[in-house]
Amino acid sequence: MAEQVLVTLDCELLDADEPLLHADDMAALRGDGVFETLLVRRGKALNLEAHLARLAHSAELLDLPETAPSDWRDAVAMAVQRWGDRREGALRLVYSRGRENAGSAITAYVLVSPLNQRVHQARSSGVTVITLERGYASDLKEFAPWLLLGAKTLSYAVNMAAIRYALRNGADDAVFVSSDGYVLEGPRSTVMILRGRELLTPPLDYGVLPGTTQQAVFAMAEEYGFTATYAPLTVVDLINADGAWLVSSVALGARITSLNGIRMPEPAAAVEVARLVDRAVEKAD
């Protein structure tokens, strides 16, 4: 197994090749927990504070016990120090309700792993994408809070199934579309398009996960001569855009090179956008 670093929330360094979860942990039984993934680069966990804030928000939506951000910072610092600055890594914060028996302790840990080849390929060559039905309307979040729309939960089976479906159908990734025709998000990314010098992404009211990388990009966009806007987008908007990206914390800005088999031209500002995404994540904290 590739080398990994595993640290519990109380800063105990464990062997990542040894078992950690009990068989009745709610993460394994029901996916009852939350997580975050961020990039480690040159000995630093990038955009950590935004991920800690989103982790806390997701945990609140699941009625998980509150954890101290300082505990997560300490565990992350220990894991990153152990990982070193030799290469980039994917750092996960994982938090579940713990064992099924009431009153058990929570399960919480930090795991750093090497980046897989998919990430490098997406960064350098972009991704081919198909659109998939999400199965609900864009306004469902308002009426169904129990669906946890906008929370990053461990219940990722649907997301992974969507990615496998895309791969079986000749694409690298997918974009979810609502039943009323609006673009939502990727299974593990935020959708961002370029129209002239304007960057656009779907509204959070549509029940999409708040994108930490996208938010960092929007905060720095003006410095690079772009404006940034939340706006309803359709598949036609994506096809007619000057450029489109799947934005995430580890792959950063993966340019969409084709959508539903339609080739997407590389925009003149592609290099600028790539630099903006990279810089925004590095400088977010």
Q: What report would you give on this structure?
A:
The chain has 285 residues and is of the alpha+beta class. The chain has 2 domains: 5-115, D-amino Acid Aminotransferase, Chain A, domain 1 (2-Layer Sandwich), CATH 3.30.470; 119-283, D-amino Acid Aminotransferase, subunit A, domain 2 (D-amino Acid Aminotransferase, Chain A, domain 2, Alpha-Beta Barrel). It is 31% helix and 26% strand. It has helices spanning 26-30, 48-61, 69-83, 117-125, 140-143, 157-168, 212-220, 235-240, 270-283, and strands spanning 5-8, 13-14, 33-41, 44-45, 89-96, 107-114, 127-133, 173-177, 190-195, 198-201, 227-230, 243-248, 252-259, 262-263. The strands form 2 sheets. Strands 7, 8, 9, 10, 11, 12, 13 and 14 form an 8-stranded mixed beta sheet that branches. Strands 2-1-6-5-3-4 form a 6-stranded antiparallel beta sheet. The longest helix has 15 residues, at 69-83. The radius of gyration is 19 Å and the shape is globular.
